[in-house]
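Supplementary Text 2. Reproducibility record for the structural model of the 251-residue chain.

All settings were left at their defaults, and a single model was retained for analysis rather than an ensemble. We include the record here because the model underlies the residue-level annotations in Supplementary Table 4.
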Amino acid sequence: MSSSASHAHHGEANQKPLVGSMGVDSRKLGLWAFIGSETLFFATLIVTHLIFYARTKEMLNGAGILKELDPRLNYLGIELTTVLASLLLASSLTMVLALAASKARDWKKFRFWQMATILLGASFVGGQVYEFMHLYHVGLKLAPSYALHISDEVYNTIASLNLDPSIVTLGEDHGHKAAIVPSLFGVTFFVMTGFHGLHVTIGIIWLLAVYVKVNKYPDSPENPMDIELGGLYWHFVDLVWVAIFTIVYLM
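Retained model, structure tokens:
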């Protein structure tokens, strides 16, 4: 018996016990349970971010400087994030095509679409790193305050209001005049989007591992399930970004 045939036979022997009494593969059931817990985790991060943004917005509105210092309006542009969302949506499509190719046992097409998914995911992470660097240089940091770069006119207007330092202080950031606002907006934003970026990175590693394994053992009966599990996780991280993009950037 050849090594590939032996591997296939061994895979079949190990697969049957994984199907439980409900007729669902236990690996898929386990992944769905994990996705359920991660959904609650990201929902908590999003809600926490929205709560602290609302507090910051209320404080600035009460002081009459919301328009000038609103962190969402002044920091979060949708141009780059629209591109990033498009990349992840496209990667969901290529993941579906990769799974379809694997079911048809067309491994050449599978390799093409799986690698396309990996590259689109890597492009998303690269774009997110660029966004983080940009936000840091314009004053949004993982800190209990943010420093919004402002014009001389806005600086003088805020100075004339003689506001309490618990609302805003004036200073400099990276050589620019800035209004420093005590707020956890930056902390909650970077934690939320940073954890999502980490999940995307894990997904890239997962898909790459599946790509290498399938390329090495194209006859393994475990391949369809391996690819499907990776695809389920990938679609999850895509949907999380759609939620973040819609709720945090657009609303």
